[in-house]
UniProtKB/TrEMBL annotation:
Residue ranges occupied by any HTH crp-type domain in the UniProt entry: 179-253
Entry's transmembrane regions: none
Family matches, as Gene3D superfamilies: Jelly Rolls (2.60.120.10), Winged helix-like DNA-binding domain superfamily/Winged helix DNA-binding domain (1.10.10.10)
Ranges of residues in domain Cyclic nucleotide-binding: 48-117
UniProt KW keywords: DNA-binding, Transcription, Transcription regulation
Domain of life: Bacteria
Name of the protein: Transcriptional regulator, Crp/Fnr family
Molecular function (Gene Ontology), one example: DNA-binding transcription factor activity
Record Pfam families: cNMP_binding, HTH_Crp_2
């Protein structure tokens, strides 16, 4: 067990090579360490390593490790050297930037199977914090880049994730810059629903692991506006609120129309 320099995160397993039988017949059968994340991984097609051929997978797993954080521990701070790409196996992470006056803009929420930690200049451009207890696969950036010349599928997978993040950035710019409060909240709920489906979870009810303050800081609204708009959606029959961390989408068509400004 080791401690990182960002709180009490515990490094629970260091990756080691798979045997020569390939992804389906090796690690999940022959690795016996009870803390090995590959033995417990339920990501399936969501896993960063899933599309890799056995030889590339073996090399990737040789540099992989697993870490755990409890909320509200910090994974890394804005300006820290960008050392790792990270992918949650379970739990939720938020990323954010702070202004000089203390105001916060949340830039993203990351769930199991997502990949984050990209950097253009060698330093993280945002802070990452655990929203819930989270277990992550961790890949050292320098060693990962060294694999690319001989691992084209791995390189393509990282490129695709990078392009997807860029596309999400443009959607976030539209959300913050041009949409009203109801349009923002409807877009957010539908986005969480879509991402849940992509993970193999139900489209509704939608689990909301983050608090109302986090939602407000992501959408560029006040907590009061988020609560008031959500209550309005409930009165209109668009959603139900069985508990603070769950929202049932009752009329997706109407929510889509609101999100699109119709």
């Amino acid at each position: 067990m080791t401690l990182t320099n960002h709180g009490a995160a515990t490094a629970v397993f260091s990756g080691r090579p798979f045997d020569k039988r390939g992804r389906e017949g090796c690690a999940r059968d022959t690795r016996t360490d009870p803390l090995d994340p590959c033995l417990q991984c339920t990501l399936g097609d969501l896993a960063f390593c899933n599309p890799l051929p056995p030889d590339e997978l073996e090399r990737l797993m040789a540099i992989q490790s697993s870490v755990r954080f409890a909320p509200p521990e910090t994974l890394f701070n804005e300006g820290d050297p960008a050392l790792y790409l990270l992918s949650p196996v379970s739990g939720t992470v938020k990323t954010y930037k702070l202004m000089a006056d203390g105001r916060r803009q949340i830039t993203g929420f990351f769930f199991r199977g997502d990949l984050f930690g990209f950097s253009a200049n060698g330093a993280y451009g945002y802070t990452a914090e655990a929203v819930t207890p989270v277990t992550l696969c961790r890949f050292p950036l320098v060693k990962l880049e060294q694999l690319f010349p001989g691992a084209p599928v791995l390189a393509r997978s990282v490129l695709q994730r990078t392009l997807a993040k860029l596309a999400n950035f443009h959607e976030q710019m539209l959300l913050l810059g041009r949409k009203s409060a109801p349009e923002k909240l409807a877009s957010f709920l539908l986005s969480l629903s879509m991402r849940a489906q992509e993970r193999g979870d139900p489209a509704s009810p939608v689990l909301i692991p983050m608090g109302r303050a986090d939602v407000a800081d992501y959408l560029g609204l006040t907590i009061e506006t988020v609560s008031r708009t959500l209550s309005k959606f409930r009165v209109q029959g668009l959603v139900e609120l069985p508990n603070p961390s769950t929202i049932t989408l009752c009329d997706r068509g109407a929510l889509r129309a609101i999100a699109d400004g119709l």
